[in-house]
C-alpha cells in the first residue's frame, strides 16, 4: 500500500505498515473480492430468511397469529442454524479471506474456498427443505436420540436428510479452515525456515514471544489479525470432526434402525463442536476488530506479547469446553465432580482472550483521533455488546448459577445478546467498511446507517431484556407457547422486535443502494484506505 495517506472530505485515512495488499497482483485482488462478495451477499440473503422465521416464532409465542406447534419447532430449528451459521458464520468466513488479502496473505488455492461456499449453500437449502417441508423439528442441536422419536411428526428419512444437510455445512467449515491454514503457512508469512509447523507457529504469533527462536525472513512480524484467524482455523478443523462423526452415525441409523449410538457419547460428540462453533463468530470478529480499529484510530494497536499468550490459551481451552454444557448430566458423584473440576476453570480461562482484546482495542482508541463512520460506530457498539453479553456468559459458566438458569430463557437471551448485539453488530460494521471497498463506490448514506444503528440498539436491547428477566424467574426455553405468567414479557418484546427489524431493513436498503451505485448518492463517508 502506498505510504501516502488519502483524504476524503477532510478526514485522513490511516496506512499501517502491515497493510500491503496492493503488492499483490490485480488478478488476485479481483478474484478475492469477487469471492468475498459472493459470501457476503449470499449470507445476507440467509439473514433475511432466518430473520423472517424468527419474527414468526416470537409473534406466535405472543399469540398474534399462532402457528402449529410442530411447525413452530421446525421453524426454530431452521432459524437457529440459519441465523448462526448460514448468516453470521458464513459472512465472517468470507470476510476473513478479505482481511488476509488486505494483509498481503492471499489464498494460495481457491478450490477449498469454492467447496466451502457451495457446501454451505447446499447444506442450508437442505436444512430449509427438511424443516419447512419435511417437518423436522428437533432443534438445531438435534440432541440424540430425540430426532428418532418424533411422535409421528417427521420421518427417520427426514432425520437422515437433515443430518446430511448439516454435514454439508460441516464440510464447508472444514474446507474453509483448510483454505486459511494453507494461506497462513505460505510464502506470505515470510518464514526464515521451511516447514509447515514452523510457519504455523509464526502465524500464531510466536515471533512476538520468542524472536530469537521464531524468525521471519523479512522485517514484518505476523500481523495481529492473523493470530485469531489461525486459532479458529485450527479449532474448527479439529472440533468439527467429532460432530461430523455423529452426523454420519445418525445418517446410518436413519437407513438401518438397528444401528444405535450411546446417548451420552452422542452428546459429547455434539458439544465437542457445539460450543467451539460459537467462536466461529467470535474469533473472526476479533480479527476484524484488530484490523479495523487501529485504522479508525489512526495508530497501530496497543498490545504486546500478552496478546499472543492469551490466544494460545484460547487455542487450547477451546478444545475442551464442551462439557460445561453437561454440568447437569450426571448424578452428583465422582465422575461429575471431576468433570466440573476440569471444565469450569477451563471455561473461565478462555475469557482471557476476550478481556485482553477488549482492553487492547480500548487502549488503542483512547485519546486517538478516532474516525467515527458508519462502520466504526457499529464496531464499537459491537464491542460493548460483546462485553455486556460476556458478563452473562460468566454467570452461565458458574456451576451453582447454572443450576438456576439451565434451560431457561436466560440462556436464549444471552445467546441472542452475544450473537446479534455483540458479534452481529461487529459483522454489520465489517459490511459497512468492506462494501464500499469491494464495490469501489461510496456508502450510500451515513444517515440511514445511523437509523440502522439506533434501531438495532433500542430494539435489540429491549428485545433481549424480555428474555433475560423471565429467564431469571425460571421461564423455560424451547416452548412453543410459554406458561401464561410470562405472557407480559413475550408481548412486551414485540414492539422492540419491530423497531429492531425496521432498523435492519433500513441497513439492508443502505447496503443494496451502495452496491447499485445509485445516481442519487446521499452522502459519503471518510474512507479508511
Account of the 3D structure:
With 529 residues, the protein is mainly α. It has a domain at 13-371: Cytochrome c oxidase-like, subunit I domain (Cytochrome C Oxidase, Chain A). Strand 1 and strand 2 (11-12) form a beta hairpin. The longest helix has 36 residues, at 26-61. It starts with 6 loop residues before the first strand and ends in a 13-residue tail after the last helix. The protein has 17 helices and two strands.
Give the name of the CATH architecture of the domain at 13-371: Up-down Bundle
Encode the helix/strand succession as letters.
EEHHHHHHHHHHHHHHHHH
Structural class: mainly alpha
C-alpha geometry: globular
Main CATH class of the domain at 13-371: Mainly Alpha
Mean pLDDT: 88
Q: Report, as a whole number of angstroms, the end-to-end distance.
A: 9 Å
How big is the Rg?
23 Å
Largest beta-sheet characterization: 2 strands, antiparallel
Q: Let me know the CATH homologous superfamily of the domain at 13-371.
A: Cytochrome c oxidase-like, subunit I domain
CATH topology of the domain at 13-371: Cytochrome C Oxidase, Chain A
Record field, number of beta strands: 2
Number of helices: 17
Strand content: under 5%
Low-confidence segments, given as residue ranges, are: 1-15, 519-526
In the sheet with the most strands, the strands line up as 1-2
Helix percent band: 55-70%
